[in-house]
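Let's practice the habit of predicting before peeking. Look at the sequence and jot down your guess about where helices and strands might fall. Then scroll down.
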Amino acid sequence: MRDRKSLLFNYAFLLGGAALIVLLDQYTKELVRQNIPLGGSWMPLEWLAPYARFVHWTNSGAAFGMLQDKGLIFAILAVIVSIGIIYYFPRVAHSSWGMRIALTMQLGGALGNLVDRVLFNGEVTDFISVGSFAVFNVADSSITVGVAILILVMLLEERRSQQKALETPAAEPVEAAAAESVETPAAEPAEAAAQPSETPDTLND
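Done guessing? Here is the structure:
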């Protein structure tokens, strides 16, 4: 019963968090599709426009516009990654909140872009443009932040393991400790020989 409750809690955390990311991702993309023409841009603060703006672009490749025209491949990869995360997540310790959040963000981001690829012929809507950096969306941001958190958690875990190994003194061998604590009494020399019995002189007749 306890294992079942733990499993339900794990999947409620994972799928609930991922669903929120997907909803936010799809809501913002729909706003862009409805209000900004394809190829257009919008920024209400004119002084900020040279540095950041909202645009309406489509992307048939990976996050941040990499590897164009590979939408089907990335859709398949998104399915594989999502299944892997769902399978592995219950094995993550409840105390490892960083790892749990990282995997949840990656799942939400992967599913958010997967919805676009299924609905829009392999293309994803991107709309956040910062400086000359590649245009991205909420799902891309979620994947990137999730990966960064995952790497940070792994580095911290490795550092803790190294510190723990340094703080733990090496155990002395049991044999050596026993040999040092037990004093072997010196063996008393056995009488080299019994006192020689006196041989009576032979009586001469």
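How did you do? The chain has a mean pLDDT of 83.
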